[in-house]
Amino acid sequence: MVVNLNEIFNELVGNIEEGLNSALQRPDVVILNLIAFMILVLVIKKFFWAKVTAFLEKRQQVMHEAFTEAEQQRKHAIQIQAQASKDYEAMKEETRVLKEKLTQEAYEQQEQMIEAAKAEAKRRLEQAEKDIQFEIEQANESIKESIKTIAFAAAEKIVKREIDESLHQDLIDEIIRENTR
Predict the structure, then answer these.
(1) pTM of the model
(2) CA within 20 to 30 Å of 43's CA: 4, 61, 113, 142, which one?
């Protein structure tokens, strides 16, 4: 393949040299070519130049507008991205605040439930103590009544005489009071 490239290069150089030599040997062909070129330039300028330049200017304007619009869209996209980023950060902060608020509310609710349970336990304990105290008082009264009844029966048997019951009751109450102190 290197040989083929060298051959092509040598042939090209040869053709250029031949063309240059022929132009120097035949100046009438060169002058004729220059005149044809000048006529071509004048025809193009007279009939086509305005249309070509108008087309090129219009194309340039369209490209400029496209670049301007692309730049505006890029700026708009950057603004949207910045706004989205700002909104994301705001939502993130709002979520953090909401989480803290809910955590605090849950903690407060837990504390309220604990306090309510403590209050209920204290109330039940106090009620149980009152009930126990009431039961003790009733038991004491019952014991006193039993003692009175037993003492009365014992006194009745011992004395075997008739004693006034109200006097006997007063006597038993006095004895019980003295013994319970």
Answers:
(1) 0.39
(2) 61
